[in-house]
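Cross-check.
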Amino acid sequence: MKKSILILIFFMFLILPLVPLTVSAKEILVLTVDGVINPPHSEYVIKGIKKAHEIKAEVIIIKLDTPGGLDTSMREMVKEILNSHVPVVVYVSPKGARAASAGAFITLAAHVAAMAPGTNIGAAHPVAMGGEKMDKTMAEKVTNDAVAYIKSIAQQRGRNVEWAEQAVRKSISSTETEAFKQRVIDIIAEDLNSLIKELDGRKVKTVLGEKTINSKNAKVTELQMNFRERLLNFLSNPNIAYILLMIGIYGIIFELSNPGAIFPGVIGAISLILAFYSLQTLPINYAAAGLILLGIILFILELKFTSYGLLTLGGIICFVLGSIMLFDTENPLFKLSISVIIPVTIVTALFFALLLRLAYKAYKRKPVTGVEELIGLKGVAKTDIDKHKGMVMVHGELWQAISDEEIKKDQEIIVEQVQGLTLKVRKAD
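Predicted model, tokenized:
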């Protein structure tokens, strides 16, 4: 009997240390979306939700601060949130943040919508991306589509449908207090810890059914963007896109003017590809792009024709105007910074001015190889010289020479012309 008890105690000591390992700790996954909604942000959120499914996280919290962004990227994020097995909380934070335009759709799609004090949500009227202007009919179609989409999201989450419609049609925006009173959001939380406390015990409906959030004492894990996502997000900055475009143009011009240099051409091609990736996510004004191209052409023409700086001045004007107008939007986040435009314009003008000066110096420089280099050189007559015959020493070489004037032996001469193997010379002054 005692032996059996000892064996039982022995096995209990073996099994008990393993028990905590069989119980998965509750985990809260936190994502941060800060900036324009674009493909890298969409990819990052989708990856985060999939990871939450894999680790069976208790809840996902998306800290959001955005002025809006691409409709396609927003819809990808909303679709993933609506179909998530794990409750998704969108938290507009920190203080001073906003969930504007596409951000309003994303916030309304969350199982729990929360905002920090001093934040706002709304202004979700759709705008054209890509620089094209929508006519009245097209604008109405796009607006109606966006209204239907946001109303569907609000209905599914039990939020204020009328407010959602007005956010699209009239671009209304609300503070966190107004949004809470109007049933647009569910929680006002001072910070992340306060939000986690508020979430504990809250019931939400996921695609798998009703779920009670147990966030108390849960482990909080921050999921950061990986290097690739950070790089692509960085490239989506309009200032970066503009600089890459200029580097690409410089590189191609260098390669065309110096075939075989390779390095400028490779750098230029890579920069142009990256610039084109960036520009596809930005509202481009093609007339402005044409002005920039015209400015570059005028700079190049300055290298070919003497305009006394008029072509360069015209190029600078086209370049500056095109740069200012390049991104066709009223949103300041999509506009180029003047602190980028001015240095790039100056560098571009100096670049072509330097090429012009080098080309002019090369044109004026005396040849240093071939018979042409002999013209203008001084030498010494080795014999008497007239119109018919004579010998001179030039550049350490003996040459047959003729002259329109009589030149005596040992007199200094200057080469005027090269006629085959005979030099035409004159007396040195």
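Residues 18-24 have pLDDT under 50 and may be disordered. The chain is about 50% helix and 20% strand. Passed to J.P. for a second look.
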